[in-house]
Amino acid sequence: MKKINEAPFLKSFCDTADNMYRLGWDERNGGNISMLLDESEVKDYLDTERVIRRIPFMGVKAASFDASALAGKIFLVTGTGKYFKNVKEDPENNLGIVRIALDGSCAELLWGFKDGGRPTSEFPAHMMTHIARLAADKDHRVVMHSHPTNLLAMTYVHSLDSDAFTHTLWQMSTECIVVFPEGVEVLPWMLCGTDEIGAATAEKARAARLVVWAMHGIYGTGKTLDETFGLIETAEKAAQIYMLTAHLPRVNTINDAELRSLAEFFGVPPRKGVLD
């Protein structure tokens, strides 16, 4: 059996977490990532029949949360209370590979969380989002939550209407409408780590791969770690441009006709109701 620390999926996961910390998106234990793994690739590195321990889900009421739609699925996930800056140097304590129990009631630990840890408290919210995105895209694999500085700042000074927020981000950078033509969804501030925010995020994720949590951060989803990271990175760059210019008179902008021409040229259908 191959050494788990040499697994490409683990290496890329650690590199991504390290980049997110380096960019200031995931201070302290802020933020979390989960990635759906193929059992075939995991079996090269782990005995998937050996369950180390069963871990109840955090922050949810058993009666209102059902993960059975993901029964048997295997995830690589960050741990609760773990610092992103430590992930690359010590993945076995800061990360875990878990399988959702067949009855959907808990996670079965296959590797990691060596110090007795457990998945992020927002893992139920991740699972709800995974379910929603898999229904929209069978190739979906990643949920990434972080606290990008400028997107977070933007929620304090900009309307939280999803269409208006999308329109502003599109106008900040030529590539935005191409990278996320479906726009972004925005939620008002909600208590994190609960059924309620998980369900609200999952509902928003049916329509978009980016869901902004006002005064908190963002949820990004995608087929790969690179795609998901790049999606958040693009939105964050646009938010940075907005925050640098919002207090100044706008002399130039990308107008709606130009945004529409971009969408047509790159063959992407823009979010309905945003452009004139």
Tell me what the structure shows.
This protein has 276 residues and is of the alpha+beta class. It folds into 2 domains: 120 residues, Class II aldolase/adducin N-terminal domain (L-fuculose-1-phosphate Aldolase), CATH 3.40.225.10; 155 residues, L-fuculose-1-phosphate Aldolase. The chain contains 10 helices and 9 strands.
**Class inferred from helices and paired strands:** alpha+beta
Quote the CATH topology of the largest domain: L-fuculose-1-phosphate Aldolase
Please tell me the total number of domains. Answer: 2
Strand proportion, as a percent range, falls in: 15-25%
The string of secondary-structure elements, in order, is: HEHEEHEEHEHHHEHEEHH
- Radius of gyration, rounded? 19 Å
**Main sheet attributes: strand count, strand direction, barrel closure:** 9 strands, mixed
Overall outline = elongated
Quickly name the level 1 CATH class of the largest domain: Alpha Beta
What would you say about this model in short?
The protein is α+β, with helices and mostly antiparallel strands and 276 residues long. It contains ten helices and nine strands. The chain folds into two domains: 1-120, Class II aldolase/adducin N-terminal domain (L-fuculose-1-phosphate Aldolase); 122-276, Class II aldolase/adducin N-terminal domain (L-fuculose-1-phosphate Aldolase, 3-Layer(aba) Sandwich), CATH 3.40.225.
Describe the secondary structure blueprint for this structure.
Layout: H1 8-22, E1 32-37, H2 39-42, E2 53-56, E3 74-78, H3 91-94, E4 95-100, E5 106-112, H4 123-136, E6 142-146, H5 149-157, H6 162-172, H7 176-179, E7 185-187, H8 195-205, E8 210-213, E9 217-222, H9 225-245, H10 256-266
Parallel strand pairs: 7-8
Antiparallel strand pairs: 1-3, 1-6, 2-5, 3-4, 4-5, 6-9, 8-9
Helix pairs in contact: 4-8, 5-9, 6-9
